[in-house]
Amino acid sequence: MINENHVTDPDDDDIEGYTKIDRYNESLISNLSAHYKDVLGLIGENPEREGLLKTPERISKALLYLTQGYELDAKSILTSAMFKEDYSQMVLVKDIEVYSMCEHHMLPFFGKAHVAYIPNGHVVGLSKIPRVVDVFARRLQVQERLTNEIRDCIQDTLNPMGVGVVIECRHLCMSMRGVQKQNSVTTTSAFTGGFLSEKTRTEFLNLISARLS
Ligand SMILES: Nc1nc2c(ncn2[C@@H]2O[C@H](COP(=O)(O)OP(=O)(O)OP(=O)(O)O)[C@@H](O)[C@H]2O)c(=O)[nH]1
Ligand SMILES: [Zn+2]
């Protein structure tokens, strides 16, 4: 059945294999837009001027997009592409772009995630790892929890011999405002199993910093 209230968003179709999210429905967008219209007035703007007429609706859609992770199930993303494979060395997907929003200021933090695991009879489709990162990043977050949630999801679903996650991000709440430090980068890490041993962790960290020639 076609839901007439469903406003299509180009990114909506990009989400394969899971329940189609009904996040862009008209009543939610118009409810949010009314609040954003008030916000525009409260910060000293004229929400009726031409350039701002559609802004409340645009912000609403952007916010719903950036927080769509609440409606996605990271575990089912992984289980949709798990394959039996006799490979027991480290698998690393590095330099995964991360865009999230801090829960304190709702300002972006962004950078890279590096995610590795050691298979235990099963490997997972490579693209599913960045998808899992996005599911947790597209929520209001702190970087530490984001790091742990990615680790726990992979460990609990794939049951590998170990998982390693390192995330490096810049927080706009620390550069655009507040302490106003432009160059500081926050690094967080989370490990399970084999990655708790120094040798494996060192291999992981070396692979992250190695560049292809
Ligand atoms: N641990 C952690 N802190 C974060 C993250 N994102 C933002 N913060 C911090 O959350 C804290 C909130 O502190 P508060 O003192 O309540 O807020 P504030 O007055 O706006 O703080 P300032 O940013 O120092 O001006 C700040 O220190 C932020 O830097 C994150 O991902 N992890
Ligand atoms: Zn913040």
UniProtKB/TrEMBL annotation:
Keywords: GTP-binding, Hydrolase, Metal-binding, Nucleotide-binding, One-carbon metabolism, Zinc. SUPFAM superfamilies: Tetrahydrobiopterin biosynthesis enzymes-like. It catalyses: GTP + H2O = 7,8-dihydroneopterin 3'-triphosphate + formate + H(+). One of its GO terms (cellular component) is cytoplasm. Its EC number is 3.5.4.16. PROSITE patterns: GTP_CYCLOHYDROL_1_1, GTP_CYCLOHYDROL_1_2. One of its GO terms (biological process) is one-carbon metabolic process. Pfam families: GTP_cyclohydroI (PF01227). Residues 34-208 form the GTP cyclohydrolase I domain. Pathway: Cofactor biosynthesis; 7,8-dihydroneopterin triphosphate biosynthesis; 7,8-dihydroneopterin triphosphate from GTP: step 1/1. Zn(2+) binds at C102, H105, C173. InterPro entries: GTP-CH-I_C/QueF (IPR043133), GTP-CH-I_N (IPR043134), GTP_CycHdrlase_I (IPR001474), GTP_CycHdrlase_I_CS (IPR018234), GTP_CycHdrlase_I_dom (IPR020602). GO terms for molecular function: GTP binding; GTP cyclohydrolase I activity; zinc ion binding. Homopolymer. Belongs to the GTP cyclohydrolase I family. This is GTP cyclohydrolase 1. It comes from Mucilaginibacter frigoritolerans. The lineage of its organism: Bacteria, Pseudomonadati, Bacteroidota, Sphingobacteriia, Sphingobacteriales.
